[in-house]
Input
Amino acid sequence: MTEHLGFGAMLARLLDHRKLTGQELADRVGLTTIEVRAVLAGETPGERLLRRLAAALGLHAVDLFILAGLEVPDDMAPLDSAASRWVPYVVMDAVHLPAAGRRELIKLIRALPQEERYTRFVQKEFAPRTGGPGSWAVRMLQYRNLDWMGMAKTLAVVTPTYLSAATYGVIGAGCKELTPRLVTDFAALLGIDAYELAALTGIVLSEVPRPPSSEAVDAAALLWEVRRLSATQARHISELARTMSENSREGYLINLPGT
Output
């Protein structure tokens, strides 16, 4: 299995990919070069620093917490874990829409009122915080409110990856290596550049990845937006997406962007 690189090593690989120096990152984050060098050397970053790094690097803070092997703060978690029942269908129906329809759906989601959080988000299936690249990628998707079955359905429709739900459990447990193909497809659904996810996870891409399709880009945006919805709101959006697409839940196309 691929060993844990340590957050400092992962950050260094990302900076190298972006051709950024520690000084340039320090300037962006508002820290001293000494503070940045300490993290790059292996010092565990705190919550405040991770939030600032995420903003400076244009990444989601929740993903940096997962990569650092730290507990994700409640305010970064999906609002309602029960919404995971509907999230895959929102995405699968949406990607069958034309681009204008997908944009309209995202606009409607953003217009929904923010409901209160009543329960703490708990992952339905266990993925260890220090289990390696596979567990990090699966946890990132779990924090988009996808369970293993949701990952299987969504990735099959949006990307060339077609795996069983149980296989995502094996990957999440750190018992199956991430392949370059998985890194590329996970990155598309997470809304992360494939080369950057490869750098962060220590996986070498053997081929130049194709740019994500517009459907995949919108799928990643939808996944991020529906994190803030309650189960009732997610069900409403799911039903709306199905109506807009005029699609039967028995008839999804596999690897839609590639057909």
Observations:
- Residues 5 and 202 are 7 Å apart (CA to CA).
- The chain has a mean pLDDT of 90.
- The chain is about 55% helix and 0% strand.
- The chain has two domains: 1-59, 77-259.
